[in-house]
Write a structure and sequence with these properties.
The protein is of the alpha+beta class. Helices cover 49% and strands 10% of the residues. It is built from 17 helices and twelve strands. The strands form four sheets. It has a five-stranded mixed sheet, with helices on one face. Helix 11 packs across helix 13 and helix 13 crosses helix 15. Bound molecules: protoporphyrin IX containing FE. Protoporphyrin IX containing FE (HEM) binds next to helix 13 and helix 17.
């Protein structure tokens, strides 16, 4: 694939090209080497690929904004008009699209629910789910690993944690994909605001009765906690709660699904690491960190400049967009020895897969727990994993690193 990669900086402009989407490591490595803070006229913003600059961008809350409804992003949304007002209203409460102080207010809703201690209570259930899903893959020549394992595990876990009834879970994948097309800047999909708007409506209709029920019949679950949470004596509004529950449904399974699937692809490429994990299940923790670094589910995230400043020797002007490419930072040889090598014992491993700063992924402890349990069990039970999908295809968008399908065979021990 390397010969298809661009040689001159201006040839890096198509961030949705096959090279950028299918082989991002090579594409962004080359961009980092040639122009680490690169002006991209097509995206109309800066593409940042060096570890030091990406982390600085994530931590700079004074000068960089996450607000997708203001600055240069406002017109993207405004262009969609009042037709999509409901979608916009709901998304405008999503904590990752907000700056301080509103972000602090929203984040306080969920901060305690996802600490490593809070999610630890889910371990036995996750272990049981992993075993029953994995056992159904045993002895089969070909399994749809994406649908049968990588999707099912996180969707059941997050739905149970949030109290979403089992019969509603089937639709969650389709609705999340439609929302993802809006959130991840999907290319070549002009209808994305239509389908995203419908998906948001379905999800809100699913969540609203649960929120109302918990208002009068509180249980020991996350939504009850959110409904009864108070900040300085005030309760959160119903739409703020619904919108952020939708965010957790969406963020809580889409990314974890991709973490598990991308991990399987990495283990297929580095079979020695599978054996290593099978021989020492204690490596599951560092193995998951290495999957996150090597091929994490979020490739890049956008910000915009609230004021002029300098980044990596470039002058960024007010209202300029900035794409912080985590995938590139995670492969920066200035920070990671042999970054192209998948080494499940790598430590320390200060990857940026969960972001940094005030928006650092709130669900990281849950995602880690699920993936650790999954890889440890699979490596113990199966001699090897073989990817059968001939040509792996990744979603054509700027943000997520998501396979469109993954068929595999798990060989018995
Ligand atoms: C491997 C799986 C996951 C990855 C790679 C991931 C990645 C990320 C990243 C990079 C951010 C920062 C966004 C930004 O700075 O703009 C983020 C934020 C967030 N994530 Fe995750 N995530 C994962 C799993 C989860 C799970 C399981 C949940 C919920 C249960 C979740 C909920 C959230 C929420 C609510 C935010 C917004 C936090 C804020 O703005 O303060 N994520 N995630």
């Amino acid at each position: 694939m390397t010969e298809t990669l661009p040689a001159a900086p201006q040839l890096f402009d198509d961030l949705l090209s096959d090279a950028a989407i299918q082989t991002p490591t090579e594409f962004y490595n080359r961009l980092r080497e040639q122009d680490p803070v690169h002006w991209n006229p097509r995206w109309n913003g800066w593409i940042v690929t060096g570890y030091r600059d990406v982390i600085a961008g994530f931590r700079d809350h004074e000068r960089l904004s996450s607000d997708r409804f203001a600055g240069p992003f406002a017109k993207d949304m405004a262009g969609s008009g009042s037709r999509y007002q409901q979608l916009i209203d709901f998304m405008s409460h999503w904590m990752f699209t907000k700056d301080r102080p509103y972000h602090t207010h929203l984040r306080s809703l969920v901060n305690t629910a996802f600490t490593p201690r809070s999610v630890e209570v889910l371990r036995p259930r996750i272990r049981q789910l992993v075993a029953s899903l994995a056992d159904s893959l045993r002895g089969r020549d070909r399994v749809n690993f994406m649908a049968e394992f990588a999707f099912t595990l996180p969707v059941v876990v997050i739905a149970e944690y949030l109290g979403i009834p089992p019969e509603s879970r089937e639709n969650l994948r389709a609705w999340s994909e439609d929302l993802g097309a809006v959130v991840f800047f999907q290319g070549g999909n002009q209808d994305r605001f239509d389908t995203g708007g419908q998906a948001m409506q379905h999800l809100a209709e699913l969540i609203r009765p649960i929120v109302r029920d918990r208002a009068t019949n509180p249980r020991e679950d996350l939504i009850s906690g959110m409904v009864h949470a108070e900040l300085d004596g005030d309760r959160f509004e119903e739409d703020e709660i619904i919108s952020n529950v939708v965010l957790m449904v969406f963020a809580g399974h889409e990314t974890t699904m991709n973490l598990i699937a991308n991990g399987i692809v990495a283990f297929d490429r580095f079979p020695g690491e599978w054996e290593r994990l099978a021989g020492d299940p204690g490596l599951a923790r560092t193995a998951v960190e290495e999957v996150l670094r090597y091929d994490g589910p979020i490739r890049a995230l956008a910000r915009w400049a609230k004021e002029p400043f300098e980044l990596g020797g470039r002058q960024i002007e007010k209202n300029h967009r900035i794409l912080l490419v985590q995938h590139a930072a995670n492969h920066d040889p200035a920070f990671f020895a042999h970054p192209g090598h998948f080494d499940i014992g790598r430590w320390p491993n200060k990857h940026l897969a969960f972001g940094q700063g005030i928006h650092t992924c709130v669900g990281a402890p849950l995602a880690r727990l699920e993936a650790q349990e999954a890889f440890a069990y699979l490596a113990r039970e199966f001699a090897s994993v073989e990817v059968l999908t001939r040509e792996l295809r990744y979603g054509r968008n700027l943000v997520s690193r998501s396979l469109s399908g993954l068929d595999a065979r798990l060989h018995d021990r």
